[in-house]
Design brief:
Helix content of chain B: 25-40%
Largest sheet of chain B: 5 strands, parallel
Radius of gyration of chain A: 18 Å
Distance between the termini of chain B: 59 Å
Number of strands of chain A: 16
Strand order of the largest sheet of chain B: 3-2-1-4-16
Radius of gyration of chain B: 23 Å
Largest sheet of chain A: 7 strands, antiparallel
Distance between the termini of chain A: 30 Å
Structural class of chain B: alpha/beta
Number of helices of chain B: 19
Strand content of chain A: 25-35%
Number of helices of chain A: 9
Oligomer: heterodimer
């Protein structure tokens, strides 16, 4: 059992949890993830590690309530427990001095971008972060990102805060302005990462993305997380989660991510009927 | 009487019609009467080739003699000397290729049903344990040496069992939230009930083995860190690893599973009880399983039990070359699995949503013998055809998991990335031993257990030298 030390609401359907997981914290690096299981009948949920504290033995996860499992996780309070935390999983992001780096985070994807930007900055890179949210009330970790970057550019889709538009709109402007961009990292919805990949491919800027595939084991035995990269089958948990954005087949990835849409609905509806305190928000 | 003795006493099983709608165990085990009858067929021959035929060298004639004398306690004690998980091996060992293949009785008639008798003794023991009558095997003097075991599958548990009996402090590290490795995630309930695996693991716990779940060695901790943190030796029994694919178009469409994923969802995560359990599985109407081994049979029969209307098994050679146990092939046939032999998939075709909808196949014929001694399947020109399928399960084997070699500097690997170990189970690094599928590639439960036991003996020798 793993103790929940802190539970904070970050925005609509967006939650932060700090967990007591000393073994994970001891080894965690930017780019890695955990698999958690909330209770005995729960599924294995892969979530990126948004922060970690080696001394205190804690890790932070940030998640969005989408289906049954994440909604159920959100009902757990600080002081409570979840059954399993396995990690850190996946290969750490390859971070060195690249020069002029752009980090892009979309929505919940801002969370894993935070330790990434921080480490990149520590390594002496000039880090410009572009963070995008649906609307003003979805904005989280703006200050954290400012600390972890040399410059932060913020967009909301509806223009209620920061610039109006998508992260790709800001990226386009930046690419037009900046003479030299040495590397780009992008984490967010698959559709966003695909859009970023298409833009940077034209300019030949090496772009690394972090994939959130459908996953079961997370440790290299089941093959659920496979993805087509440069025409070859790769496993997100063993070979990734970072991949060269220009080599990933996003269309197959996005279709695969939809595999369990029907089942997720069944599970969520059943759960909603069971919990009397469920409220749409 | 003589004629009767030539035949094995049959074991009762659920009828095919009944069992394909449930996950309950198929063979029901021997009654006492049946066990006495079968054990009395054993000639107690002086050469006892069966012992040599058994990868863990159970003293088979002696335990059969004990059953014949209705001293089942003695029988199980004899088995336990060599085998920590008899209720498991009695069910899933390919006895027909091992102990029973060399049985003298097999020359005149049926060989002795050694596996069934082993299961009889083990189940008797489990029943006693349920009633609180627990007899723990003898343990050696505690020696304050710590040994880490990576993986709680058959090789790890066998190694742990032997070492704890010799007085070592044994800690088993398991990545999953549940102990048992392939016995839990791989082999279906209808072939090996999970409660039996759990009982056997409880026994190891009582012996003093510490099992830590949710720790993936290579990520959460590494082999070098274990050696630094007070473990004098490490045994790596990490299992078979990543599923293999054929590298044909459409392999990553939704609805195309590896057998490992399919079976893990169903067996470990209990997706067959969805939505009571949260892990989903697609219930398909038409399922194709690719492969001809035990894992392919398990997958096909599981798909049927989940509610598939039609399950085809596509295998590129003929029935004779199938690596699966004959008993499993027979069970699959009886349950109505449609065998598409001498057939190979060449392409999966998806619908507009990216779900698989059909598989294009080509007919094969057997050509010259290849390295494995089996005739090589060769495609027949102009023989392509398409089968409508809404689920594909690929069961063509595995390649070694790369995580441990990548995180253990200097660890020698062999062909395709398996961990290299010598005949005593020692790797090239002092204090690190390995065995089971991570060394040999995918094999059987009993060979993995044999490797675990061998490594335990080597670790004992190694650490005795160090004391």
């Amino acid at each position: 059992m793993f103790k929940i030390l802190k539970h904070q609401k970050l925005g609509p359907k967006m939650q932060l949890m700090k967990l007591d997981a000393p073994f994970v914290a001891k080894k965690a690096e930017a780019g890695q993830f955990v698999i958690i299981r909330v209770y005995e009948k729960g599924e294995r949920i892969p979530l990126t590690i948004a922060d970690f504290n080696r001394e205190k033995g804690t890790i932070t996860i940030v998640f969005q309530e989408i289906g049954k499992s994440t909604h159920f996780l959100a009902t757990k309070q600080a002081g409570g427990y979840i059954s399993d935390v396995l990690g850190p999983l996946g290969n750490p992001t390859d971070i060195e001095y690249f020069g002029n780096v752009i980090c892009i985070g979309g929505g919940i994807g801002v969370a894993p971008v935070y330790p990434l930007s921080r480490k990149l900055k520590q390594k002496g890179n000039k880090v410009t972060s572009i963070i995008g949210y649906r609307s003003k009330n979805y904005v989280f970790w703006e200050d954290e990102m400012k600390n972890a970057s040399n410059k932060v550019l913020l967009a909301t889709n509806d223009g209620t805060y920061g610039e109006k538009g998508f992260v790709t709109d800001i990226l386009k402007k930046l690419m037009d302005e900046e003479k030299q961009i040495d590397r780009i990292f992008a984490i967010g919805p698959a559709i966003m990462m695909k859009a970023v990949a298409n833009m940077t491919k034209e300019r030949g800027i090496k772009t690394i993305i972090s994939l959130n595939s459908i996953m079961v084991c997370g440790m290299g035995m089941c093959g659920a997380c496979r993805v087509t990269v440069e025409g070859k089958t790769k496993f997100t948990c063993a070979d990734g989660p970072d991949f060269d954005a220009h080599l990933v087949d996003f269309d197959i990835l996005m279709k695969r991510l939809n595999t369990y849409k029907d089942e997720e609905k069944i599970s969520f509806e059943k759960w909603k009927a069971e919990v009397d305190y469920y409220e749409e928000s | 009487m003589k004629n009767l003795n030539k035949k094995q006493v049959p074991m009762q099983e659920q009828s095919a019609k009944e069992r394909k709608n449930n996950f309950n165990e198929v063979p029901l085990g021997y009654s006492k009467k049946e066990a006495l009858l079968e054990s009395s067929r054993c000639l107690q021959c002086p050469t006892h080739p069966c012992i040599e035929g058994c990868p863990v060298h159970i003293n088979i004639p002696n335990f059969i003699k004990a059953i014949k004398e209705d001293n089942v306690q003695l029988a199980i004690d004899i088995i336990h000397e060599s085998d920590s998980l008899p209720a498991v091996t009695g069910r899933v060992c390919p006895q027909e290729d091992q102990c029973q293949a060399v049985c003298i009785m097999g020359k005149a008639g049926d060989p002795i049903a050694i596996g069934r008798l082993e299961r009889y003794a083990a189940d008797w023991d489990l029943q006693n344990r349920k009633e609180g009558k627990i007899k723990l095997p003898a343990k050696g003097k505690l020696n304050n040496k710590n040994v880490a075991i990576v993986g709680s599958g058959p090789s790890g548990l066998a190694c742990a069992g032997d070492l704890v009996k010799k007085g070592y402090n044994v800690t088993v590290f398991e990545g999953f939230h549940k102990t048992g490795g392939v016995l839990i995630y791989g082999i279906p309930e209808f072939r090996l009930p999970k409660s039996i695996v759990q009982e056997e693991i409880n026994m190891l716990n009582k012996l003093g083995i510490k099992i830590t779940t949710d720790v993936l060695i290579g990520r959460t901790m590494t082999i070098p860190s274990l050696l630094k943190d007070g473990f004098s030796a490490v045994f790596i029994g990490a299992g078979a690893g990543l599923p293999s694919f054929m590298h044909i178009p459409g392999e990553n469409l939704a609805g195309v599973y590896s057998a490992n994923e399919f079976l893990t969802r169903v067996n470990l995560m209990k997706a067959y009880k969805f939505p009571q359990y949260d892990t989903p599985i697609k219930i398909a109407k038409r399922v194709a399983v690719i492969g001809g081994g035990n894992v392919a049979m398990d997958s096909a029969r599981t798909a049927l039990r989940l509610g598939a209307e039609h399950v085809s098994l596509i295998y590129r050679r003929s029935r004779k070359e199938m690596p699966a146990r004959n008993e499993e092939i027979l069970h699959a046939e009886e349950e109505g699995i449609d065998f598409r032999l001498l057939t190979n998939p060449i392409r999966y075709i998806g619908n507009e949503k990216g779900f698989v909808k059909s598989v294009e196949c080509i007919k094969m014929q057997l050509g010259e013998k290849d390295k494995s001694g089996r005739r090589r399947p060769v495609p027949i020109d102009d023989s392509k055809f398409t089968l409508d399928m809404d689920q594909i399960i690929v069961a063509i084997g595995t390649t070694p998991n790369p995580i441990i070699p990548r995180t253990t500097a200097g660890l020698k690997t062999g062909r395709h990335g398996v961990i290299w170990a010598d005949e005593d189970g020692a790797t090239n690094i002092k204090g690190i031993f390995a065995g089971g599928d991570i060394v040999t590639g995918a094999a059987t439960v009993i060979t993995a257990m044999g490797a675990g036991r061998l490594a335990a003996a080597s670790i004992n020798k190694y650490l005795k030298g160090n004391i």
